[in-house]
Design goal:
- A 5-stranded antiparallel sheet has the order 4-3-2-1-5, covered by helices on one side.
- By secondary structure, the protein is an alpha+beta fold.
- A hairpin with a 2-residue loop joins strand 2 (58-63) and strand 3.
- The protein is globular, with a radius of gyration of 13 Å.
- The longest helix is centred in the first third of the chain and has 11 residues, at 9-19.
- It has one domain.
- It is built from 4 helices and 5 strands; from the N terminus they run αααβββββα.
């Protein structure tokens, strides 16, 4: 189900990137789970995928046949694997999502 505005995922991500100059940095450095939650609220069929090869500990969102992060459509989806509810850190370890990324730094 697409959002009622029928905006595409890539259009939505472009608007989100342009809303604040630091959004790209934030959603690539610890905010990727929050982006998944935002996208899932608009596209309920969204599924989280993760990688240790593209950006260590990064979460992308699968919507339809494609994977997305704040940069748009993921160009190398084979680097990502589906997350199961058992692998979601906040459900099992209490780790806050903004701390998942190994290179987490303060957002400028």
């Amino acid at each position: 189900m697409a959002p009622s505005t029928s905006i595409s995922v890539t259009e939505f991500l472009a608007v989100l990137r342009s809303a604040r100059p630091d959004n790209t940095h934030y959603y690539l450095n610890g905010g990727c789970w929050e982006l998944f939650r935002i996208l899932r609220s608009l596209w309920p069929e969204s599924q989280p995928y993760h990688t240790w090869d593209d950006i260590a500990g990064h979460v992308a969102t699968k919507i339809g046949p494609h994977l997305y992060d704040i940069r748009g459509r993921i160009r190398r989806p084979r680097l990502y694997t589906p997350m199961t509810t058992q692998s979601w850190p906040s459900l099992n370890t209490g780790h806050r999502p903004h701390r998942w990324h190994k290179a987490y730094r303060r957002i400028p």
